[in-house]
Amino acid sequence: xxxxxxxxxxLNGQLESTxxxxxxxxxxxxxxxxxxxxxxxxxxxxxxxxxRLKASLKIQNKKxxxxxNALRTDILQLTHAEKKKEINIKVVFNxxxxxSNYLIYYIDSAYPTSEQYNRGVKxxxxxxxxxxxNAKVLNYxxxxxxxxxxxxxxxxxxxxxxxxxxxxxxxxxxxxFIKNGLLFTAPEDIVLKGITxxxxxxxxxxxxxxxxxxxxxxxxxxxxxxxxxxxxxPMVLPVCCIDENHFDVSNTIMAELRRYYLKKxxxxxxxxxx
Length: 274
Fold this sequence. Notes:
The protein has helices at residues 24-27, 46-59, 68-82, 114-119, 140-153, 195-207, 252-273; strands spanning 5-11, 14-17, 30-39, 42-43, 87-96, 99-107, 121-127, 157-161, 166-170, 174-179, 182-185, 211-213, 216-217, 226-231, 235-242, 245-246. It is of the alpha+beta class. Strands 7, 8, 9, 10, 11, 12, 13, 14, 15 and 16 form a ten-stranded mixed β-sheet that branches. A six-stranded antiparallel β-sheet has the order 2-1-6-5-3-4. The two termini are 36 Å apart.
């Protein structure tokens, strides 16, 4: 699969032809990145993503290569050239020996279908931990290993299980469980602080759904009635099963959270274009 799709990309503030894109600019050295969903040609929760990028840089002790205003201008430049409406865009800060570059480009984007939202998706357990869960650092080896396992099992996502046998997060998403009307999700300090996760928790506080920041043990999955994942592409996506454990995908809490979340998406689009 190509890393960069489309006809153009941004390299250090300059619009370039995709023909000159070199994967080594991303995969050699250290890369810290964000993936932002474009809706109606506008980045969703743009400010949140850039603030998280800055937090990742601080954790990794890396310098900022472009500020929020420059990145906003670059994204507008790319969207004007491409005019793509519904797609994900990737912002990468790469540090390779004595050279540093930043890139912005479109990536192949697969969003859940209506059927997957209605019937839920299959997931699996995968025993692994992120080295720095609060920093979005490219780990090509782990990503490739999980991608292969997902292909083997024909699953949508892998739930990471740590050394204490606790489910922490998805390989590219955050994880929630519903148990006796309460929401359970991992404590913030051991997972990536997902943007969608942040707004789902905010919605819960607004509409009175209790959230407990506790991991569910891999041995205790069957005690939960429902589960869903959140992320840039899936938004709020029900899980029908984890390995052989099946869940109720008709739980009204999930549909309600998705409805309120989409309202916050619309507000973020309005704030970007103002």
